[in-house]
Amino acid sequence: MLQHRNDDEQQEMFKRYEATFKALSDQLRLKIMYELNQRGQVCVCDLTEIVGLSQSKLSYHLKILLDVNLIEREKIGTWNYYRLNEQEVRGLLSEELCCIFYPEKK
């Protein structure tokens, strides 16, 4: 629970959530995540067509999502395949995050 963390741990946790929510604050990245959720693992070559972005623009957005662990990448041959990091996405709905916004019962 949040109240049992020291200040440094809280700061790290807040930084992690800040970066994650910044990554989620873009409609294109939300669309990418939506498509990965609907389709499972997708080749970057197909993802460019699905979301309608050039490969360079798509790579920019994928890197942001990768940096906060919301998606995972697997290289198969010469192609990169992407999928949601389901554990990390589920963590956004975790009790830990909810405790930030609810006062501690006394």
TrEMBL record:
Record keywords, A-Z: DNA-binding, Transcription, Transcription regulation
A GO molecular function held by the record: DNA-binding transcription factor activity
SMART domains referenced in this protein's UniProt entry, alphabetically: HTH_ARSR (SM00418)
InterPro entries associated with the record: ArsR-like_HTH, ArsR_HTH, HTH_ArsR_DNA-bd_dom, HTH_MetalResp_TranReg, WH-like_DNA-bd_sf, WH_DNA-bd_sf
The HTH arsR-type domain, residue ranges: 9-104
NCBIfam families: HTH_metalloreg
Protein name: Winged helix-turn-helix transcriptional regulator
The organism of origin for this protein: Lentibacillus cibarius
